[in-house]
Task: structure prediction
Amino acid sequence: MKVFAALSYAYNKILDALYFAVGIALVFVMLTVTVGIITRYFFSVSLGWSAEISGYVLIPLALLAAPKMLRDGGHIKVDLISNAVSPKINSFLVIIGSVLGAAVFSLLTLAGSKITIDMLETGYRTDTFLRVPRFILIGISVLGLLLMTVQFLRNIIKTGGVLTEKQKPPSEEYVENR
Result:
């Protein structure tokens, strides 16, 4: 059990670090776009790569931040149902949602992995100014998909304990123990 606790601790630290990195990257994107707008309108100089970079990073950044939000319960949920049912039924519904989430994200991870490998083998690059290797862009997204799959599986395990013990759902438990 100590190994599982250590892995869980390390995984949480990875999610926290990625979330912090996403925040820094978003500030960078914001500054890049702002500088691009200022240079275009005031100095008639276009930074064509600024829009390209922001377009490349927004979806991967969202996918890298999503597992932390899922862990912390910061995602959007329908309280109307969860507040109307007993905690045991609510835990059962969380498990069903997590099983479906894990299934969908594992399929997306597998498909994305295949695409990433294909892009790596073919050396495909974007048809834009920066000519970025596509496998990097897709690979970052696949990492986010994989982390979402893992977090859904963690939610299943933790919420499964709620059905047998007197525990809080995983998102509430993590926020309180933090």
